[in-house]
Design a protein that fits this description.
The complex is a heterodimer. Chain A is an alpha/beta fold. Chain A has a single domain, classed as 3-Layer(aba) Sandwich (Hypothetical Protein Ychn, Chain: A). Chain A is 41% helix and 17% strand. Chain A has helices at residues 18-33, 44-48, 68-79, 85-94, 103-109, 127-134; strands spanning 8-13, 37-42, 98-102, 123-125, 139-142. Chain A has a five-stranded parallel sheet with strand order 4-3-2-1-5, sandwiched between helices. The relative contact order of chain A is 0.24. By secondary structure, chain B is an alpha+beta fold. Chain B has one domain (3-72): TusA-like domain (Translation Initiation Factor IF3), CATH 3.30.110. In chain B, 34% of the residues lie in helices and 37% in strands. Chain B has a four-stranded mixed sheet with strand order 1-2-4-3, with helices on one face. In chain B, α1 (15-26) packs parallel to α2 (40-52). The chains are: A alpha/beta, B alpha+beta. The A-B interface holds A 1-2, 26, 29-30, 32-35, 80-83, 88, 91, 94-95 and B 10-15, 17-18, 20-22, 25, 48-49, 52-54.
């Protein structure tokens, strides 16, 4: 069952907003849990979240209000017992998800490998890798 | 045959689904994974995952808000 063609989810995480990184990781982990393969290609603002200590740093995409909105949403999420981004990222890797880092973003933004969480990253790559993954994917999203 | 218990009571999306998958990956063929939780959608979606993974859903029971799903790997 798990070896069907088009049994893959490929997600571009372009946004570094906290809520959008949540969406990317929830969908990716759901895909892995349901027997698909999954990869997340972190680029532009999304790649900032792979910096050491950067995962939870993103603002809220709407009504951030200089962090007040984010603080309120985080409080609500805690009350609802939502998993942290860190836990979801660890689960993603444990279930065999691939984390891809965009090397062009690294060059443009002056990000070095040692700035990133290299232990979690499967590959440093570019659009060709995304396309070769996406063309065999049943799910592909740009977040 | 081992029996593996996963307690997801109080956990929300996507934790019950992900924890079920983690337990199933660690289980040996023939082992039974029992998941207990309260998240309403997971009660429907864990059986969907079981089907997608080609595994056997043994039982789904409910007591109040708590559901219990038993899966054979």
């Amino acid at each position: 069952m798990a070896n069907n063609e088009n049994n893959k989810a490929t997600i571009i995480a372009h946004s570094g907003d906290m809520d959008k990184i949540y969406s990317a990781l929830i969908v990716a982990n759901g895909a892995l849990a349901m027997g698909m393969e999954a990869s997340i290609f972190f680029t532009f603002w999304g790649l900032q979240r792979l910096k050491k200590g950067g995962l939870e740093r993103g603002p809220l995409s709407k009504m951030n209000m200089f962090g007040l909105g984010k603080w309120m949403v985080k409080r609500k999420m805690k009350a609802a017992n939502a998993a942290s981004l860190e836990r979801m990222l660890q689960d993603f890797v444990e279930l065999g998800g691939k984390i891809l880092a965009c090397d062009m973003t690294m060059a443009i933004m002056g990000i070095k490998k040692e700035d990133l969480r290299d232990d979690l990253i499967s590959d440093y790559c570019a659009v060709g890798t995304y396309v070769s993954e996406a063309r065999e994917s049943a799910i592909t999203l740009f977040i | 045959m081992a029996e593996i218990k996963v307690d997801c009571k109080g956990e929300t999306c996507p934790v019950p689904l992900v924890e079920t998958r983690k337990a199933l990956r660690k289980a040996e063929p023939g082992d039974i994974v029992e998941v207990i939780g309260t998240h309403p959608s997971s009660k429907k979606e864990i059986p969907m995952a079981v089907k997608a993974l080609g595994l056997e859903l043994l039982e789904l029971t409910e007591e109040g808000d708590i559901w219990r799903i038993r899966i054979r790997k």
